[in-house]
Each structure stands twice: as C-alpha cells, then as structure tokens.
Amino acid sequence: MVGVSLLCAAALLLLLAAGGAIPPPEEAARMARFVLHNCDWGALATLSAQEGLRGQPFANIFSLSDGPPGPLGGSGVPYLYLTDMEISVQDLEINSNASLTVSLAQTPYCKKHKYDPQNPLCAHIIFCGSIVKVNDSEAGLAKKALFSRHPEMESWPKDHNWFFAKFNITNIWVLDYFGGLKIVTPEEYYNVKP
C-alpha cells in the first residue's frame, strides 16, 4: 500500500515538474496524441519482401509529423515523406500493414527525469495500421506538417519521386505507466483534445 502511495506521489511530482504539459496516466488517448506530436521520427515495422528476409519483421526509422510544432499544431495523423526506392516502402507495396512506434525517449523529457527508454514512465506509443498515399486534397496538409519539422526534405533529390503518405491507424497501444499497456481506439484518439 505504501509503495502504491509513493508511486502516485511520484507521478504527481512528475506532472508538476513538467508544468502539467504531459497528460496524466489515466488519459491514455491524450498521451498518445501528446507523444506523437512531440516526436519527429518513429520506428516503422513492416513484413519484409526482400530476398533472404521475406516474411520476417523489419524495422526502419522514418521522419514523421502530425503537424507544425506547438500546442495547437497536431492533427494526430502521422504523415511521412516516402520514395519507392526505400527498402521498407518496397515491403509496403507488397503488404501495406505496418506498426509505428514513437517514444518520448527522443525528447529531452526522459533524459531530464533520468528515465531509461524502456522505463514505462518514458512513454511510448505503438500504432498498428497501414501506410496509404495521401490524396491531392490532403497533400498540402501533409507537406506543411512534414516540411515545418523537417525543412531539409524540400531539397531532397526530385528524381527519387517522393510522395506524401500517412499512417492509417487501426489500433493503438499506450505504455506510459506501470501495470501494462492501455488500448486506445482510433475514435478515442482522434476525438480527444491533445
């Protein structure tokens, strides 16, 4: 009982130290939106279509964005800038299903609090779904989201045939506290204010 009280007190101190910026553990949908919006990259896992690895899991790092930096800039949609020349994109052409993991370990937050990236208090989110090319009406939004965080992208070689894509979320798991994963539905995720 004392251990649980100490954990609750530690969580309260953590929230106060962060200026209330990080959502509390009982708001898993808000936490998922918060973590995605504060991350500039994630690990995208596909099923490999490559010779010698066919059917095996394959993870790769991709820059991403759900909108311009700042508290009101996030849509919750993970946008990516891709080329068919990339090995994971070749996997996605065979099977568009994937998972995407983002973690506060890439922000100053976990280092400031001396949390190991595997510590549940260093929140990470696992999205499952598929990668789809955005349509013309959404391309402007994806471009603004990505280029505002990754300005270098604008100068990437044009002959690589870059295109904007999004992660179409079907399942969400949140690990932000002790006691195991929390499941958040896409509806809960998109309906909550970050």
From TrEMBL:
Keywords: Glycoprotein, Secreted, Signal. SUPFAM superfamilies: FMN-binding split barrel. Residues 1-21 form the signal peptide. The keyword Nucleotide-binding does not apply. One of its GO terms (cellular component) is cytoplasm. The keyword Signal applies. InterPro entries: CREG, CREG_beta-barrel, Split_barrel_FMN-bd. It is found in: Secreted. Residues 23-191 form the CREG-like beta-barrel domain. Belongs to the CREG family. This is CREG1 protein. The gene is Creg1.
